[in-house]
Amino acid sequence: MASRFFVLGLLFGICSVILASDPSPLQDFCVADSTSSVHVNGKVCKDPKLVEAEDFFFSGLHIAGNTSTPSGNVGTKTTIPGLNTLGITATRGDFAPFGLTSPHIHPRATEMVLVLEGCLEVGFVTSNPENRLITKLLEVGYVFVFPQGLVHFQRNVRDTNAVALSAFSSQNSELTRVSTACFGSTPAIPVDLLAKSFQINEQTASQIGGI
């Protein structure tokens, strides 16, 4: 009897992992209705009889983004109403010479990145207790995967521009930067807590939080 409960528990755990993604749609598509103010898990569906080809189309990924940012990186996200409830989206990433995406996580999505131009150093850190850094140098045409929820980064290692295309396994992957979450929250995390956590003095912790 005990072994039977163990097997049932194991099957339940496996099924829980398999189901941990955006839910499958219950219709062919659910084009987002931009005029609706109703809040749901996703967006309210547009009347299928009013759907057009433009609802499934986006033409902006050929346009280079403005990388005049502190990190030298900018992302252009696909805004396609027809992706609503389909559990996928994509972003173009532009990197100035030596630009980067600071360490961050996507709490709801695995990310797959394809280098279109230049060369990127990419990496992610495994969870506790190993906290192992896994990195790779990506040339044009190379692909790399960042598992869902793990801290990762991308960095242009050359003095020329770089471009990458990222696909996400969620329509709303979200992005949480480690530095902003720790030192830029509202209200702020207590300085003494940050100082002890990062093993720095309180003055340094205050200076980082003020940037």
UniProtKB/TrEMBL annotation:
Mn(2+) binds at residues 104, 106, 111, 152. It comes from the Eukaryota. It is found in: Secreted, Extracellular space, Apoplast. Residues 1-20 form the signal peptide. The keyword Cell membrane does not apply. Keywords: Apoplast, Disulfide bond, Manganese, Metal-binding, Secreted, Signal. Disulfide bonds join 30-45. Residues 59-206 form the Cupin type-1 domain. PROSITE patterns: GERMIN. Oxalate binds at residues 106, 111. Its main location: secreted. One of its GO terms (cellular component) is apoplast. InterPro entries: Cupin_1, Germin, Germin_Mn-BS, RmlC-like_jellyroll, RmlC_Cupin_sf. One of its GO terms (molecular function) is manganese ion binding. Belongs to the germin family. This is Germin-like protein.
